[in-house]
Write a structure and sequence with these properties.
The chain is mainly alpha-helical. It is built from five helices and no strands. It has helices spanning 5-18, 33-48, 51-59, 83-96, 101-119. α4 (83-96) crosses α5.
């Protein structure tokens, strides 16, 4: 990636500032609050290309079940398994072409719960 002339000048000024032994800063522009957020948003838009990419980058992971990123965290279940069961999950994940163990566990839990809820 090539920096624009303006960014090269800004980089050089920042580098010179950091190399000053006094630790004093030089006067310049600074933004605070909503103005700083707007500047950050514009930098991210420039770097990532579009608003959807920015939301994906700053909003976190999408929620399980398709809710948008940034909509809060998904509920979590934590379990411990034997080493043999973990190996089984790893094999099944590879066979099914799934990316994460959690994908296998979610699919298994969905199937189990549906089967048992229908039976009751």
């Amino acid at each position: 990636m090539t920096l624009s002339k303006k960014d090269q000048e800004r980089y050089a000024a920042l580098a010179a500032l950091e190399e000053q032994p006094t630790g004093t800063s030089t006067p310049g522009e600074s933004a605070h609050g909503a103005d700083a957020a707007a500047v950050g948003q514009q930098l991210l838009l420039g770097a990532l290309g579009n608003a959807k990419a920015v939301q994906r980058a700053v909003g976190g992971r999408p929620r399980v079940g398709g809710a948008a990123a940034g909509a809060g965290s998904s509920p979590t279940l934590r379990v411990r398994v034997t080493a043999n069961r973990k190996q089984d999950v790893d094999r099944l994940r590879a066979q099914l072409g799934m990316k994460h163990d959690s994908d296998v566990v979610r699919a298994a839990l969905d199937e189990y719960v549906e089967r048992h809820l229908q039976a009751s």
